Amino acid sequence: MAQTNPMNTMPMGPWKITVYDQEYFQGKRMEFTSCCQNIMECGMENVRSLKVECGSWVGFEHSSFCGQQFVLEKGDYPRFEAYSGSNSYRIERMISFRPICCASHKESRMTVYEKENMGGRQFELCNDYPSLQAMGWFNNEVGSMHVQCGAFVCYQFPGYRGHQYIMECDCRGGEYKCYRQFGSHAQTPQIQSIRRIQH
Fold first, then answer.
1. Using only C-alpha atoms, what is the Rg of the chain?
2. Cα dihedral angle (15, 175, 166, 13), rounded to 10 degrees?
3. Cα separation of 91 and 81, whole Å?
4. Cβ neighbours for 54, distance < 8 A, ≥ 6 positions apart
5. pLDDT tens-digit map of 114-130
6. % pLDDT > 90, the chain
């Protein structure tokens, strides 16, 4: 059954995700075309597998879009490892999720800055970078960033590993002025790889 949030002001779009409470697309099944702040309120304890049919989504470890973030692009995710990626922190929970409205693989641009509040040296990105240091960034931290268009996922380690942080041009005006704004789970400004989110 499709779930919608009547309080949601998100524009209508081609978003659809099907979630299951068991691995390998078994057990209770629900379809969503907009945000879900707490899967437990829908009668599920957890999301253990899912299929993204339309659009790009971001999943969260806790309710109300808090905790670890997981980028969910079109495809099948039969077990939690498929969406948690090579995250070095074992997490088997996904309680809330929402579409990434501004995801646009063709038009993505962001600027990373050495210091907080868009200060210090800067570098503009419009592609995928498995290693920021290999492309010329001078250390393993990013003080702040501004997403001009599209959406990106930033990773704590090179090769798209570690904690994931979803950065969107339509959140905070695209401005992330310090690492604490990267996500509710962010404990360090360490970012070493970045890629565009495909729609």
1. 16
2. 0
3. 9
4. 14, 15, 16, 74
5. 999 999 999 999 999 99
6. 77
In terms of residues, how long is the chain?
199
Q: What is the largest CA-CA distance in the chain?
A: 51
Structure tokens at 85: 């990626």
Name the residue type at position 65: F
CA distance 90 to 80: 9
The residue with tokens 């879900």 is 36
Exposed / middle / buried, residue 124 (Cβ in 10 Å: 0-12, 13-18, 19+): exposed
Predicted TM-score of the model (pTM): 0.87
SS3 for the chain, per residue? Answer: CEECCCCCCCCCCCCEEEEEEEHHHEEEEEEECCCECCHHHHCCCCCCEEEEEECCEEEEEEHHHEEEEEEECCEEECCHHHHHCCCCCCCCCCCEEEECCCCCCCCCEEEEEEECCCEEEEEEECCCECCCCCCCCCCCECCEEEEEECEEEEEEECCCEEEEEEEECCCHHHEECCHHHCCCCCCCCECCEEEECCC
- Count other C-beta atoms under 10 Å from residue 11's C-beta: 8
For 39-93, the pLDDT digits (tens) are 999 999 999 999 999 999 999 999 999 999 999 999 999 998 887 765 555 678 8
